[in-house]
Amino acid sequence: MDRAVLRVLVYIAARVLINSFRRAFSNPLRAMLTLFVLALILCGWGGAILGAVVGSSVRTPPPTALSRPPEQVLDSSIVSVLLIHWFYVVFTLLPAVWRSPHILVVESDVHYLFTTPLKPLALFWGIILIRGLLGAIVFLLLLIFYLFTIGSASLRSLMQAQQPMESSWLILLYPLMYLLMFATAVLGSIAIETLEVAGRSVRKWWVWGLIGWVVLSLLLVVGRFIYLQRGMPRTIVPAHEVLDWLPVYLVLLPVRALADAALVLYTGFTPAIGVGLLFWLGGVLLGNAVLVRHQRWLYEVGAFLARGASLARSAQQDPLGTYLRRKAEAAAHKLFKTPALLQRWTPRGVRALLWRDLLISWRASSIGNLITIAFIAGAPAAFVLWISLLRADANVVVAMRFAYASTQAVLAFFLAFSAYYGIADMLRRVDWQKPLPFDSRAVVIVESLPLVVLFAIAQVITVGLTTLIVPREWLFWLLSSLVALSWASALQMAMFWIALVNPDPHDYTQRLITGVMSVPLLTITGGPGLAFWMLWIGAGWHPLVGAGLTLAANLFASMVMIAINSALYERFSPVD
Predict the structure, then answer these.
(1) Contact at 8 Å (CB) between 405 and 534?
(2) What angle is formed at CA 82 by the lines to CA 78 and CA 88, rounded to 5 degrees?
(3) What does pTM read for this prediction?
């Protein structure tokens, strides 16, 4: 790569990072969160990782660590680390193939860098190396944060109960494999966009392939666990018997490699690590091969990505007009049309904001909304049907109740977790709707309801399906769905707070704060309600008592978040 162009890319990346920190410290609340997150990651976990790398590898476990067998401690550590990395790989690869990487190319690249005699392939490698590295570092910090928070208990027990088996320097395999995985995602995204521009429609095949891999991995793990658990009704199946089963091992191999690399000091150099290095390296080489073969299209790809980034910035200047125009154009090619009855009904007042959001969502992604409703409605009923067919013991009712409630809780959690970008888009329209004479509390409530409405429709279908499967438990299905709906509302309020504090999803600092704060805030907001919910099932409380306590906890959390969000909304400015 030409040194002058490399200096330009480094300078642009440095300016983006500096401006990101300036914007972060211009807001007092965001400044405190930024300092807290950086101190937590760099001082806390950074020191722990540095100590693990350069410190002594020989330690004597204290006597208190021997309360659990080392094999059981290792199993729990592998499960927690594997689960974190599974979610991380899914939410890194799916967005990479689902949408174009507009953030990598800007208009100045087209006007200045693309006019140089530099080879297109070298230029794109420089852009990926410089700008993609910033995103990789941000996501690596997020991964380390969740690795040492969600999995902190099991990792601490593992460090106490088992001595390291390998040299501390082998831990460096983990960031190497992570960078290969991230480079595979970035290169794959650009390669898919290049093939699309070249006239080969391959995006849908990659999207459906990844979705199929996600579904297959879930079915294999859950099916293997249920199959083994039938023969061990009084104990929990050891995790290694599920994860080491050959079909599960092969399907989860890309994720298992990352998890084993994170625990390489205690698991040793496993075959999954070697195969995983080859797998992710193969992904990088495959993406690079596509770019080499179609390098004559790279400038067109860059211009297309820069145009998308420019349209996104213009949407921030004229959010309402751009948003409605884009969705109206997309609606002309949709299979499902808005019913005439719904078009004739024109609500007034603050309800019009909710109706506007629902119509935009329907016209923009009608099929996607129907698939979402079907999945949310079908998943709890499918688990209830599965358990009713496989089990015939005395605890089958408790198992069905727990499966029904836990599935609803997981779906509500991830529905809220994915709501950030939609709320951020809504906040770009604040300039238009703030002059309207609406109470800020009412606006906060209705603007957080579009996904809750979809969840409510799904719950009506779920109650009907599960009542057909097990009619005698109709009261529990109904009350649990009401509880799930209230829990989803509370979690949406928590994500609304995240979006009000960090309204720009493309800013590196705000993206880091959002990633670190989302799960803890969702846990704090929904924790009391979830605790009452699970206690109601586990302790066998009366349905009305359990549902009443859970609804009260969720309502209290929602009211607190509404009060906080309304105060932030009154002071919110889209210029921020």
Answers:
(1) yes
(2) 155
(3) 0.67
